[in-house]
From TrEMBL:
CDD domains: Sialidase_non-viral (cd15482). It comes from Candidatus Jettenia caeni. Gene3D superfamilies: 2.120.10.10. This is Sialidase domain-containing protein.
Amino acid sequence: MLRKRKLILIVGVVCIVGLLGVISVEAQPAPKNTLARLEMLSERGKFLKQRLGKNVNRLSSGYQMIIGFEEQWDSIKSILERAAEQGGFSQEGDEVKEIEKALTPPAPFTGNNPFAKSDSLSLFGGFTQYNPSIGWWGNNAVCGFSDSGSYAATFLPNFDESLPPSPSPSGSFSRLGWSRSSNAGAAFTDKGILLADPLPNDMAFYDLFGDPVVRAASSSTFYYACIADRYFKVDSSLAIFNGITVFKSTSAGFSWGFPVSATEGAGESETSVFDYPSMAVKPGSPARIYVAYTRFDFSGASNIIRIELVKSTNGGASWSQPVKIAEEPVTEENTGWVTNSQVAVGPNGEIYVAWEEFDRFGDQSLNPRSIKLRKSIDGGNTFGAEVKVSPVTHAGSSPFSILQGNIEVPFNLHGLAVDTSGTATNGNVYVIWHDGRNLSRHEPLSFDSRYRYADILFSKSTDGGSSWSAPVRVNNDPITKKADQFIPAIAVDKTGKIGVLFYDRKYNLRNFLIDVTVATSGNAGATWMNRKVTERSFDSGLKDEFVSSFDFSIGEYITIAQDASKTNNGFIGAWGDNSLSDSNIGVAKLK
C-alpha cells in the first residue's frame, strides 16, 4: 500500500509518551493512554499550522477542528486526564434533557438524536452536528454529518454506552456521524459514529475529520466521502497520509465497508493537504463515481493550490490518477486561490466541475473572485476550456466575508446541478451562490468600511455550459430590506423542478436570527416561490463546544437532495439548526 515515491512524515521514534501511558505502533492504544493519542492529534494541528502558515485559514472546518484543538490542548488536558482516571464522563441527572423533550417536538430534529448523551456532555460543554449531506434513492435515504459528539465518543472511555463502539477499537478518531431513513425521508434514525475499524495490520489509525458528502447509486448502494488521515506502521514509527476517503454501503446505509482512499494515486504525502470534497455518481451507472477536491501542494519552491478530479469505475474499489482542473500558485506577491469545487454529471455522462477563483485572498481588498466551470465529454479523462459563469461579490464585511453573528462565509459558490429529468429542460446546468452585489451599507469595523447583504443568485446554461444567463435573485424579499440569505444548496427532481435551500434572515427585523427557506422553480429558474421551512428561528451562537475552539455552529454548507431513482417528486433538505442552543441536524421533506 505504501509507495517508495511518497514522502513519509515520521511522527515519532518507537513511541509517544503521554500523561497516562505510552503509545507504540506495535500495541493498539487502550483507554489508559487516550491522552497520548490526543497529543498526536495536537501535534498534527501544530504541523498543519507550520506547513501552511497564513494559508491555514483557507482550510475547511474539518481541519480547523484539529488546529483549534492544538491551540487549546493545554487548557483541556487536565479535564481529559481526570475523565480517563474516572472511567469517562457521566451525567448525574437528565432534568434538562427531560424538559427539552417535553417542550420540543421531534421534528425537525430527525437528522440526529439531540437527546443523546453524545449531544450534551455537561452544562458547560456540549457538542454540535453540522455540514449535512444526503443521498436519496426511493424509500432509502442516508444523511451524513460532522459531529463533535462522535469525535468525543471515540476517545472518552465509557462515554455513551448506546454508541457502538466507544472508544474506537484501534484508537482512531472520527468526527462523523450518519442517520438513515426507510420511508423516503419522513423520519431518520441516528446510526451513531462512522468508523473505519477494523483496520488492516499495516495501519495504526484511520482518523476521519469531516466534510461529509453522501450520494445514492441504487436502492442498496450509497457512498460516503470525507477527509481523513491514515497512519501507517513503518518500522517503529508512523507515516501519515492525508486524503479524501470513500466509504461504500451495500445495505442502504445500515453499515459501511472499509473505506478506500480516492486520492492515493494523487501522491498523498506530508507536503499535500486534500480538502473540500465533492462527489457525483453517473446516472444509470452505480459503479462510476467522480470526486473533485481542493489540493494544497507545498512540495516545490512555491505553494500551489489545485482543483483536481479522480474517478472510480468499479464502485470505489480503486481510483484513477487525478486530472487537473484548475491551478493557482501562491506566493507573497500572488495570493490567488481556487477552491470549493462542485462536480455534477449530466444525462449523457458529461461531467461538469465548477469552482470559485480568487484573484486575491485575505488582504484588505474586495477580494475579486469569480465562478468558473469546465466540462468533460470523455468520462473525465480530459476537460474543455474553462468558462466564466459569473463574477461574484463577497458578502458581509471584508476581508474574510463575516456576516452579523460572527458567521464566516468565505466562499460564494455552494451548488452545481444538472437536470437529468428527461423533460424539456433535460441537460440544463444550474449554478447557485450567495452574493453581496445588490445592497451595502457603511460599516466602520469592516476593512473596506462596507457591509454587503447576501442574496442567493442563480445562473443557468442551456447549451451544455458554453454560455450562462445573467444571474437571477432567488430570495423574494425586497432588496432594500437589509437581510442576509446565505449558504444555498440546489437539486433538480424528476419533473425538472429546481429546489434551492438556504439560510434566511428576512423574517427577523434586526437581520440576526436565522431561519431556513426553500425556493422552488418550475420554469428553469425564471421565477421562484419561497417558503419558510423552520418553525423556530435561531441565532448563530452555540452552547460551549467542548472539544474545539473555533466558532463553528451551523457549518459551511447545507444540503438538498432529489430522489436519484426518480420515484418520488420533491426533495429532502437538511441543515444545521441551533434552536436547542447547540447545532443539530434539521431535516424536512420539501415539495
